[in-house]
């Protein structure tokens, strides 16, 4: 069942406050200002929550742990949902959210790995995240770290970039099975055809699952689907960007 989108409620910021999925709209509402890219942010909200709440083996206490999972946000524009989830999970203070995008805030319009705890890459240049994820997975393999998983979130429009297709082809050919790609499909790509995203990954030898990007149980099942010997892609369909 697709969860009902939570309604923003008055938010307590007590130091010992634990935040859940229902708090995310209120956390996002703290971030105001221009260039918010609201649709880009909200399209990722449910998938990000399920990843951080139930799948990723990373926490504020494990930021430097070589054995942690790596999450790379390639869809770096509109990071409000990402910041809200990081705040809910204790990576950054909720008190930082109202300053989003201001001159002195670490929370820029694109995440900066040197300023925001838990952020693995500086992102925003579309088409870079998936190749960086391939390199991260290869680097971990070269170091003998075979347990950490690498996740990268891309938008469907990013797949118009040729760099991603090179990364998809390479990762499939070498069986880079610690690599996971989450594609948020909000029908904003210029050149993709219906079903083309799934077909592209399948043709390159990936394990692929397409799901409702608002259904938490379907997302969890897709994220945890076994895929021995192959990289895995999850295509999460959400409402069209301009709907």
Protein described:
The protein is an alpha/beta fold. It is 30% helix and 12% strand. The protein has one domain (21-59, 67-237): Rossmann fold (3-Layer(aba) Sandwich), CATH 3.40.50.970. The protein has eight helices and five strands; from the N terminus they run αααβααβαβαβαβ. α3 (45-55) crosses α8 and α5 (129-142) packs parallel to α6.
Secondary structure: elements and pairs:
Layout: H1 24-29, H2 38-42, H3 45-55, E1 70-73, H4 80-88, H5 129-142, E2 150-155, H6 162-174, E3 179-185, H7 196-203, E4 207-212, H8 216-223, E5 232-237
Helix pairs in contact: 3-4, 3-8, 5-6
- Overall domain count: 1
Q: How much β-strand is present in the residues?
A: 5-15%
| General form | globular
**What is the straight-line distance between the termini?**
22 Å
Largest sheet: 5 strands, parallel
| Name of the CATH class | Alpha Beta
Rounded mean pLDDT score: 89
| Regions with little confidence, pLDDT below 50 for 5+ residues | none
Counted beta strands: 5
What would you report as the Rg, rounded to the nearest angstrom?
A: 17 Å
Series of secondary-structure elements, N-terminal to C-terminal: HHHEHHEHEHEHE
- CATH architecture call: 3-Layer(aba) Sandwich
* Fraction of residues in helix: 25-40%
Structural classification: alpha/beta
CATH superfamily grouping: Thiamin diphosphate (ThDP)-binding fold, Pyr/PP domains
- Strand arrangement, major sheet: 1-2-3-5-4
Named CATH topology = Rossmann fold
Tally of alpha and pi helices: 8
């Amino acid at each position: 069942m697709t969860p009902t989108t939570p309604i923003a409620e008055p938010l307590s910021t007590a130091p010992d406050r634990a935040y859940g999925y229902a708090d995310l709209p209120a956390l996002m509402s703290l971030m105001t200002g221009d260039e918010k890219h609201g649709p880009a942010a909200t399209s990722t909200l449910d998938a990000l929550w399920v990843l951080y709440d139930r799948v990723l083996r990373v926490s504020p206490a494990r930021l430097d742990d070589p054995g942690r999972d790596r999450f790379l946000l390639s869809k770096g524009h509109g990071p409000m949902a990402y910041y809200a989830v990081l705040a809910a999970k204790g990576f950054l203070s909720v008190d930082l959210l109202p300053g989003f995008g201001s001159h002195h805030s670490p929370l820029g319009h694109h995440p900066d790995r040197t300023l925001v705890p838990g952020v693995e890459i500086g992102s925003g240049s579309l088409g870079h995240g998936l190749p960086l994820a391939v390199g991260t997975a290869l680097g971990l393999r070269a170091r003998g770290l075979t347990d950490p998983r690498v996740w990268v979130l891309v938008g469907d429009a990013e797949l118009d970039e040729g760099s991603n297709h090179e990364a998809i082809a390479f990762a499939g050919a070498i069986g880079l099975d610690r690599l996971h790609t989450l594609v948020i499909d909000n029908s904003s790509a210029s050149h993709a055809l219906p079903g083309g995203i799934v077909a592209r990954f399948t043709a390159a030898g990936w394990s692929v699952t397409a799901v409702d990007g608002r259904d938490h149980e379907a997302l969890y099942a897709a994220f945890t689907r076994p895929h021995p010997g192959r990289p895995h892609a999850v295509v999460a369909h959400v409402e069209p960007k301009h709907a």
